[in-house]
Design a protein that fits this description.
The chain has one domain. Helix content is 25%, strand content 32%. The protein is α+β, with helices and mostly antiparallel strands. Strands 1, 2, 3, 4, 5 and 6 form a six-stranded antiparallel sheet that branches.
Amino acid sequence: MKVELGPVIVSRGYFNVGDPSRRTVVEIEIAAPVESAHAQGEFQCSFRMKSPTTDEIETVYGTDTLQALQLALGHLEAALLRLSSSSGLSLRWAGGDPGDLGIRIPKFWAEEQA
């Protein structure tokens, strides 16, 4: 069964640190989380990773839309790290430092005080 991505809410391109042209070699897209057709009270979030070796859409499930989105981000981060280590790429996004995939929840001052 072919998985449909759905309406994309975020996307990001990654380039190889050693490439001065900064040509995108990996692109990710995440669709808006929606209610799952498989179980009542469950939500799903589909995502896509396109690279020179793959173009796949996958889906994760959570108890609400936020958890589904967080699980999609976590899965994509793990997939990007695996791709980096297996291909010898050092992936970077335009707003980050080498090795920074930009998939994390930033810590803010108020959290540090708690």
